[in-house]
Specification:
107 residues; mainly alpha; 2 helices; elongated
Length: 107
Amino acid sequence: MSTIPRRKFIQLSAVAAAGYLVQPGREARADDLPHLSADDPMASAMKYTDDASTVDAASRTNPAADQSCANCALVQGADGEAWRPCQIFPGKAVAAAGWCSVWAPKA
């Protein structure tokens, strides 16, 4: 005979069945996020562009020719990805070659 009381067995069975039926969520990836468009109102406000080379370095708040989303502290994801999530534009992916006025150097 089992040493587990019937009530405890039923509770454990219910938890196991619920765990079996609930499927784990899939991790969000940058590939799944829509790409940020320069026409987006938030992107326009932040002067976002997909190509940092088109921005005049003198017009930037931190003038430097090598600024891009790829080397910004606010961009997340793995280095080398063409589109990555950004803390400034939640739910959207920015171009690694892009730039916006909130650019901050990586520490």
